Protein: 4-hydroxy-3-methylbut-2-en-1-yl diphosphate synthase (flavodoxin)
Amino acid sequence: KRHDHEIEPLAPRKQTRQLNVGGVLVGGGAPISVQSMTTTRTSDIGATLQQIAELTATGCQIVRVACPTQDDADALKVIAKQSQIPVIADIHFQPKYVFAAIDAGCAAVRVNPGNIKQFDDRVGEIARAAKDAGTPIRIGVNAGSLDKRLLQKYGKATPEALVESALWEASLFEEHDFRDIKISVKHNDPVVMVKAYRLLSEQCDYPLHLGVTEAGPAFQGTIKSAAAFGALLSEGIGDTIRVSLSAPPVEEVKVGNQILESLGLRERGLEIVSCPSCGRAQVDVYTLAEQVTAGLEGLPVPLRVAVMGCVVNGPGEAREADLGVASGNGKGQIFVKGEVIRTVPESQIVETLIEEAVRLAEEMGAE
Ligand code: SF4
Structure:
């Protein structure tokens, strides 16, 4: 059992319908899942499965693959079968690939109402095929490809326009008695995005997939996503998330997981509480924190480890953590579960912390 920092969520989760996406429950109080999308050509089955394996190892729970060509559609069967996590096929323009994805055993299909004009006539057929196979559909509205009709009506991709587009598409499926739907209304501006999801959440009880689209390179995209998801998740809105970064997809998953951990929506894994350092620091905190983080990476237990530069806040934080060091005068006081267990020279701080962390992990039952 971990040290006493269990946390109450910020707000009760909004009750949504529940979907089963290839064994991962989405909505209806299920844990919020983290998604990403492969960047390989889907038709390159080996490379795609390799990337999915990397994503799985990083903690991705659902993966989406693009399906722009027949070769990609042909690859879906093997990918869906061999992937360790549920695979969602991402379809624009071509209704025939929706059927291919359902036949291939994909866990869900994402369609974009702005890009599927010809879909509207075929919604009945799609709904029937999806229902027979038990395949949920994500209606993924994107500001960059908003339905022309709504773009004309609203002048631009406003929150109202995004929501109207999504609910219009959902109503077409509802006419065919199909409700295994989740919805996203993505925009690159976190403010518009947050407003759109709030509005959508008031108007339907479908599970919502959160995303800031085209969020940008890693630093900017991380901040935009964290700010927007933080606002929504703290109001109980959002059932599954995807961070979009112009960076390798494993980075998206790390950021997504960290956002959920930060908000107390997922059990925290390894957490390094390190001080920002200041003029009082008696040790190089940055290097120490980096070395401890690197040394503990992959430890499969939730541990809070405090790395503090001096004796002002050091002992307090170190005592609160599972494990910690308060440095000073070329030495480090090592704390375990609130007690100083020994004082070591500065050069031994990192190895002592790692040793103690491994011992604690063993006690906590890690393999
Ligand atoms: Fe500065 Fe000490 Fe606080 Fe670190 S713990 S920020 S060194 S006062």
User: Anything to note?
Assistant: The mean pLDDT is 91. The CA atoms of residues 297 and 320 lie 21 Å apart. Residues 275-278, 280-281, 308-310, 312-314 surround iron/sulfur cluster (CB under 6 Å). The chain has twelve helices and 15 strands.
